[in-house]
Amino acid sequence: MAERGLRAPAWLEELVRTSPASVPWRDVTRFALVIPAPLALALAVGGVEGPAVGAGVFATMGSLAATLAPQSGPLRVRLRRVAAASLLGGVGLLVGHGLSGGGWQPVLLMVVVSAVAALLSSISGAFSLGALQLLIYTAISSGLQTPLSAGVELGFFLAGAAWGALAVLVQARTEALDPDRSAVGAVFTRVGELLEAIGTDRTEQARRELTLALNAGYDRVIHARSRSAGRSRELAELAGVLNAAAPLVEGAVASARGGVPADSRDIGAAHALATAVTSRRPVLGERPPPVEDAPAPRRAVRHGLRLVWNVVGDPEERASAAVVRPAPEWRVRLHDLFDRTLGSADSRAFVVRLTLCMTVAEIARQLLPIERPYWVLLTVAIVLKPDYGSVFTRAVQRGAGTLLGVLIGSLLLTFLHRDAWVLLPLALAAGALPWARSGNFGLFSVFQTPLIILLLDLATPSGAGLVGARLVDTLIGCGIVLVFGYLLWPQTWRAPLDDALRDATLALDRFVEAAFTQGPEATRRARRGSYRALTELQTQLQRRLAEPPPISTRAAAWWPVIVQLERASDAVTEAVIAMRAGEPAPDVAQVGVLCRALRQLEQDLREHRAPDDAELYAEGVLAPVAREVDAARRLIRETTPGRRSGVRGTDD
């Protein structure tokens, strides 16, 4: 008990936890060389006191935006992110000039910019990043006074961005492995690891990693395909390989659930397929022979391996399995765009939230007696991003990370002269960014803050005395986000995972219906949808665990329910394998009863009431599925806080 009393609360441990990550040395080298290079050129040409330093600062801002934009992924996706970040960041530089001074005109301009940025964030990942850069450089430009005209600033910014994009292109062309092929090959690696883990305590984690690999593979190869004819053909073939892997994945999941040990030849074959797909080489070894005298899950694994072996090893089979994705009509694309922006309740809510916070920050910029108040706008823009995790977590980590970053920046400004030596800490801070962003938001801020401070000090000298004021500005910005973007919103205090849990329940319902009443293709699509919904549910859980009670404690109560829904999905997969092995299909009426129970469960979650305690009856292969669904209903009824049996609308 004494030992437990010395431990920090679980939510605080989750808040400060960093994700373990290896050092991406290629990215570290690129960041350290590319980001300060424009400034180094400017200092070499004109020195610190010459007019060239301003041009170097803006060019370095452009290289910073373009270098930070791409992360892992295919080259086409990286370049889209670079283009969005660079172009919208440049727009922000121009718009920021209209925010100087006081009055209502800058406030109204900030309202418009914030609303546009929020809507852009809903379109795609690239536009979401671009919207962030739009807000960031609008904030910086509003307080950065230089002798350069707006057009000259924009020109040097875009030149620096082009330099950063060129470095991204060079690195991508010199990479040994194709990210698309690596994503598909990872699926077979995870299959092999799951087969190896059967019977150990690593089984559940291995199964979740297989689901994540499948999600990443489909996202990368199918949903992000380029329209280039030659490249699309290769991507279509990789999509065909993924689809051909569906029986293998189903067999591996069924084997893990049933505890059926894998044949060592199957494990080796899965890793051989991963190597062949990733490296564009022929599959090594012989195709495993069929098996007849073995449990159904093991036969399913062998059958799946033989199918994929044919597709990967035979170009004609691979071409015939290719997935042709027709381009949607412009009306369909326009309708989809509307659904993701103005037609989405979540998107509209974020427009109001971001606009409110940025407007309050702009009013604070005008009224509060603080130096360089644009840092308040900058903090609000960075913290209040919709797709970067919990708002509370970002605000706290940003404040703590900036505190350390400000102390580092203050020491550097105290002991460094404004000369070429400033390039050394700039390069070191830039080189640490790709590693730090894999840890957490606060660690990233520790290195980003001194980099920006040193850079802006070259444009508008302020000295070490002003650095402490930046900490105050940052705390004001974090406070604005916590109050106006977090505490005042009813969604913050509601059951945090209700929406994601309802989505996972409906996805499981579709999986059950497809598995027992529809064909193999519909079953595989529904299975992918079910596991993807469960992955999103786990992601939402991890975000909420880092928030203070009662939110974190209520989120933690959902964990057994999530595990039970995963078991139910695995049970459906096991039933599909059993039916393929000759077990009779269940009675359609029993399937209908189970589907109605799942839909009723979703309705119970929506109306905040406990499910009834009636036991589901099923026979044959459907019986294990019904038992797992019953267990999930019981957990929601008995262990989830805030539920009251027979009472609608209650929520503590």
UniProtKB/TrEMBL annotation:
<protein>
    <submittedName>
        <fullName>Putative membrane protein YccC</fullName>
    </submittedName>
</protein>
<keyword id="KW-1003">Cell membrane</keyword>
<dbReference type="Pfam" id="PF13515">
    <property type="entry name" value="FUSC_2"/>
</dbReference>
<keyword id="KW-0472">Membrane</keyword>
<dbReference type="InterPro" id="IPR049453">
    <property type="entry name" value="Memb_transporter_dom"/>
</dbReference>
<feature type="transmembrane region" description="Helical">
    <location>
        <begin position="395"/>
        <end position="413"/>
    </location>
</feature>
<feature type="transmembrane region" description="Helical">
    <location>
        <begin position="107"/>
        <end position="140"/>
    </location>
</feature>
<keyword id="KW-1133">Transmembrane helix</keyword>
<feature type="transmembrane region" description="Helical">
    <location>
        <begin position="442"/>
        <end position="459"/>
    </location>
</feature>
<feature type="transmembrane region" description="Helical">
    <location>
        <begin position="28"/>
        <end position="46"/>
    </location>
</feature>
<comment type="similarity">
    <text>Belongs to the YccS/YhfK family.</text>
</comment>
<feature type="transmembrane region" description="Helical">
    <location>
        <begin position="152"/>
        <end position="172"/>
    </location>
</feature>
<feature type="domain" description="Integral membrane bound transporter">
    <location>
        <begin position="363"/>
        <end position="484"/>
    </location>
</feature>
<feature type="transmembrane region" description="Helical">
    <location>
        <begin position="471"/>
        <end position="489"/>
    </location>
</feature>
<feature type="transmembrane region" description="Helical">
    <location>
        <begin position="82"/>
        <end position="101"/>
    </location>
</feature>
<dbReference type="GO" id="GO:0005886">
    <property type="term" value="C:plasma membrane"/>
</dbReference>
<keyword id="KW-0812">Transmembrane</keyword>
